[in-house]
UniProtKB/TrEMBL annotation:
Signal sequence bounds: none
Species of the source: Halococcus saccharolyticus DSM 5350
Highest taxon, organism lineage: Archaea
Keyword Iron annotated: no
One annotated GO biological process: substituted mannan metabolic process
Family: Belongs to the glycosyl hydrolase 26 family.
Region (Disordered): 193-215
Keywords for this protein: Glycosidase, Hydrolase
Protein name: Endoglucanase family protein
A molecular function GO annotation: mannan endo-1,4-beta-mannosidase activity
Compositionally biased tracts (Polar residues): 193-208
InterPro entries assigned: GH, GH26_dom, Glyco_hydro_26
Ranges of residues in domain GH26: 31-378
């Protein structure tokens, strides 16, 4: 199962979209929302720093929260941002279960959630290839309205009494690839994830180019704006919600990502997803952060002045090329250090590590913590875990700090409230 098939199958931190998972994530009656405390006033913006976050994986919400707790204890402070996935065109009960379950869990654990809103139908593989056209035409307005109402109530449970909860909203990501139905390239025939070739990618089973039968970039923009306008009918503002438009570092299908941009009026951040597959796949080879991110990052900076986030990124430790090589964790540790140096040098304001260690086609050892292929062992509450230590520090329980805390300095939600 490849990375994006994995996301299609689980939907979010613990799945939404299948009947069994929807039941698991509908804990409204048994998990009441706790009382909120007033949010601290934001401090002055701190130049040269960035939010650090992660996707904690799963496969269910309990495992994901446990992973976040281990990160918090390991780093001696909570990651400011936690990425969560949810399918958009699901029954209202499943929506409520997500809001009252995983979303609230993440907030109560001390993290600002980044909601990756995927316009999938309840049966994901039955999602229309023209879902962006349908949403743009108003065919799913009931779903947009219910999401806006639910998230407004979640973010502002006591109205104006406090600043309330906050979240990043990342709808319909990686549209410049050919693996999601909201791309203007037909995705139903795509079996593999992006081919990580510098300056672009190719797949052997895709003709590429715009296909009106799969929607158009213009309809994607109309979909985004309709979703944005649905939230505009609520009392949510920039202190509660910030919109993240996220593209993939490897562009697949021949349609330039700029055509999908909804405009500065409709976005707060631009995101970039990218993975160094190393030699783990038959089509891949090792790439530095510069080789992976530079081409699209340069184009993003030409497109807009909005702050940039690495909304999903990770590296394998498998060196070599075309699937022939070996695991070299020290090489991955060097890559992590180089990546955070790259973040600092390029004024990237947020980083979210994709912390899922997986095997199989189009997968690799992405995890930076808890992986079986770490360079050292970190002790958390008496349990030993593998970890990638960029500076060869001696590991001694809570004293261990890896590259994630050093490039750039890790800030908690409260410390970075001014940059939310």
């Amino acid at each position: 199962m490849n990375r994006r098939t994995f996301l299609r199958s689980i939907g979010l931190v613990g799945a939404v979209g299948t009947s069994g998972c929807a039941a698991q994530l509908n804990p409204v009656a048994e998990t009441p929302t706790p009382e909120l405390t007033p949010t601290p006033e934001p401090p002055a913006t701190r130049a040269g720093t960035a939010l650090t976050g992660m996707y904690p994986g799963g496969p269910n919400r309990e495992d994901a929260i446990a992973n976040l707790e281990l990160y918090t204890e390991w780093l001696d402070r909570p990651p400011a941002v936690a990425v969560v996935f949810v399918d958009g065109l699901i029954p209202d009960g499943a929506k409520q279960g997500f809001v009252e379950g995983p979303l609230t869990d993440i907030w109560n654990a001390g993290h600002v959630p980044m909601i990756t809103w995927q316009p999938f139908a309840q049966e994901k593989q039955q999602t229309s290839e023209t879902v962006e056209r349908e949403i743009a035409a108003g065919e799913h307005d009931d779903h947009l309205s219910s999401w806006a109402t639910l998230l407004d109530a979640w973010a502002r449970p006591y109205g104006e009494r406090t600043r309330g909860r906050r979240f990043y909203f990342r709808p319909a990501h990686e549209m410049n690839g050919d693996w999601f139905p909201w791309s203007a390239v037909e995705s139903s025939r795509i079996d593999s994830t992006v081919t990580p070739v510098q300056n672009g990618s190719r797949t052997t089973n895709a003709t590429g180019g715009e296909n009106p039968a799969a929607g158009t970039p213009e309809e994607y923009v109309e979909m985004w704006r309709r979703l944005y306008d649905a939230f505009g009918t609520t009392d949510l503002d920039a202190t509660n919600i910030q919109w993240v438009w996220a593209v993939n570092a490897d562009e697949v299908g021949g349609i330039r990502m700029e055509r999908y941009y909804p405009g500065d009026e409709y976005t707060d951040w631009v995101g970039l997803d990218g993975f160094n597959f190393g030699g783990s796949q038959s089509y891949s080879s090792w790439r530095t952060p510069q080789e992976l991110f530079d081409p699209i990052l340069g184009r993003l900076r030409e497109l807009t002045d909005k702050p940039v986030a690495l909304t999903e990124f990770a590296s394998s430790s498998f060196t070599g090329s075309e699937g022939d090589g070996e695991y070299r964790p020290a090489r991955k540790a060097d890559w992590i250090e180089a990546a955070y140096e790259y973040v600092a040098a390029n004024d990237i304001k947020m980083t979210c590590w994709f912390n899922v260690d997986k095997a199989g086609a189009d997968e690799a050892d992405w995890a930076v913590f808890g992986s079986e292929r770490g360079t050292e062992q970190a002790s958390v509450s008496g349990t030993e875990y593998a970890a990638y230590a960029a500076y060869n520090r001696t590991v001694s329980g809570d004293d261990f700090l890896g590259a994630l805390t050093d490039y750039p300095p890790l800030l908690t939600d409260a410390e970075f409230a001014g940059e939310f």
